[in-house]
Design goal:
alpha+beta, Beta-galactosidase, Chain A, domain 5, 23 helices, globular, GH94_Enzymes, Gal_mutarotase_sf_dom, glycosyltransferase
Amino acid sequence: MNQLHFIDENGSFSIEQPENISYLYFPLASEKGIKSSLTPNLGGDSKTDQETFLLEPVSAENLHNNRSCRNFWLISEKDGVFSATGSSSEQETAKFTDYQDKSKITAGFMWHTLERNSSALSVETQITSFIPVEDNVEIMYITVRNLSGNTKDMIPYAAVPIYGRSADNIRDHRNVTSMLHRIRTDSHGVLVCPTMSFDEKGHRPNSKIYYVYGCGDNGHVPECFYPTVEDFLGEGGTYTHPRAVYENLPGVQAGSAAAGKEAMGAFRFPRIQLTPGEKAEYILFLGVENSQEEIARVFEKYNTPDKVQKALETTKSWWKKKVNTGFHTGDSNFDRLMKWICFQPFLRRLFGCSFLPHHDYGRGGRGWRDLWQDCLSLLLMDPDGVGQMIEKNFGGVRIDGTNATIIGDGDGNFIADRNGIARVWMDHALWPQMTTKLYIDQTGDINILNRQVYYFKDAQTERGSRIDTLWDAGQGSLLRTENDDIYAGTILEHLLIQQLTAFYEVGDHNIYRLRGADWNDALDMAPEHGESVAFTCAYAGNLRELASMIRLLDRLSPKKTAELIEELRVLLNDNTELFENIKAKKDLLAEYMQSCSHRISGRRFTVRLSELAENLEHKADWLTKYLQDHEWIDGESDEGWFNSYYDDHGQAVEGFFPNEVRMMLTGQVFSIMGNVASQKQIRRIINSADHYLYQKEIGGYRLNTDFHELKFDMGRMFGFAYGEKENGAVFSHMAVMYANALYRRGFAKEGWKALKTLAETSLDFDTSRIYPGIPEYFRSDGRGMYHYLTGAASWFMMTMITQVFGVRGEAGNLILAPQLTAEQFDSQGNASVSLVFAGKKLEIIYENPKRKDSGTYTIASVTYDGQHIQTDGSGQAAIPRRILDTLSDECHHIIVKLN
């Protein structure tokens, strides 16, 4: 029986006895930097960055191993001990028995409420956790209600272990760094200010103050404190049986100090007496600041139940407003799931890819792909400022077509790669163009291609194959000319350099080299002879799309030419015989790279836009034919697919092998999306994917079949157990991109099959075991893994809006081209999507009273605010930008009648 239930249209949900499910965690964060994770018993951690962890860092296995959670205790001399989080030795013993507490979690965007009912004490507790949008503090709002017919006499305790240092110190000098702690108590709680932070790089004075404060609704402040772990647990005590609580040990008073020990935000409140039905309220503050004054400000801002409840409502409203996209289909649970999918890109922007329990790698921030793919969702939900963000992000591109891989704070801040390690992901040039094209489609701002942006410069040169010994960090991180001027080129120039340098960097089969990896980071063991057919297909599509963007610029701009850096001229070679010659292509690329390995001339040449577009189209056409001729694998009469990779021995990884078939999804996605596969081939690819990769009960399309070998000449993914992560799991990102590719080529039913299976598996709590949303992947038993922080969410949302509902931009005009299947309409034949386009709030309502299927209906009429738009009776209609610009800021209803 599915235990998770939605309780409103915004996706808020509830689940009973959540502690009976392993690995659950919920994210909380603010725009100010604090990031938390909460388990059903309020375990998890809290931090602002890699160096600043308020609570002890956790990985997935710590979620059930650790007992050092946020806790609130109630002690009754008559009835015993009760933990409001269920984290006492007695409550753990009673788990899965008839004596287990009744518990329930209710949660929504950035808020989480844990309710617990103790039959032993006859009390009910409720802990609502949230992080206000504007402050670096996690607030726990606690209520205690007497459910008995008698007056209850109880002593409350708060207990939150304070870690207070870098995540690195978990295994690097943990005990030594506790000696840096300077701990003190004041009238409201416990504060910890380490004297310094240090690692092998050096010693740095510390100014961070970590704190746990508390107060009661009746003006009560803590009456004594247990500021160290040893004080609170007592000799031989544990976090589930702390002697300070069980034995009512005396604590220290406000104004006390301790040093050199692990810190504990623990204190005892005055004894309370609750009459039947009466409740008491408490507020705990978990935070980190740079000054005592800032802590006092935060405390004053939220130190009463009224203030907290007001802040909670403000927080809820803020995030509801942020998630300004909504869907109405024939499945209300799917519509509510989509709210969480639309929320996930915000979580990735705040958390990066390092700060939730399964994401226990890296040091925070986002990678190059994340920068661009997160912009996809922002363009659909919060487009203001995305143009400027795109411009700044192009500042990470090097003149050799590679890019910075260490992303600094804020937009457009890039850092030289750590330790001079050259790492080139061959797919990195793909994503900036995809995002820029969507931006132009949604806004009509084709002139973004003419904007000037600097190039990133560090010691890496010639596409990571050499170190520039003439460069030093004192020169800054911007490319300079021979005259020592900082050079800036147009975004169009950046895009050309990225696409063209990739075109010439080929391997032994004239396919783009794999280098360190492509999108699949786990294909990292074929640096010499590895080639990515999958992304060669993608780049073929990119060349064609860049050409179309240039033709649009040519059509709309009075200037019919582009000025490009002189060194780039050689990359525009249009000799088909050269394209066939692997050595000549490598030599040409080497010539270009050597000409700009340290500085560039700064000279420019002029080329006609139409000539430039034609040049790229020739390259795309040649690539397409070459891939068709060399990489197609013929299966049975109705099956076939494209090889995706060559390994480090130069062997194709897919096809028919002794006793097995080897197939990967990635090559099929990009051959379809890049318009390499023909319509007939797409049908055969679908049959093959359904035959070899599809497994409905675990989410749909696996990333690959089982190769039954470690395959050290390809990547670490083959060391994973089959069905885990990149080795044959249902990897949501690629499954969604498969759906997107199918929709783009007109295969709506097949695309919906991929999306629907992912959604159904996510919603099947008994299988997925996750809160609502799309995880990074579903493992071999269907459990959702690496939840929340995945690019799949952006692609799922984009596919639903631009392909399924067909609401997308084209040079700034609004296109309506639905591909909804019959089942996606409600019982009256309606389906709708709410979003922002051209700065206007729109609700597009499709009326299909006969519930016809995709491909069988046409658009009969389109009206907005009662005004008719001329249609041509096809499956597509357009609303010009000039009409949209005249609309008011209120929500406008666009009604599309289907026939």
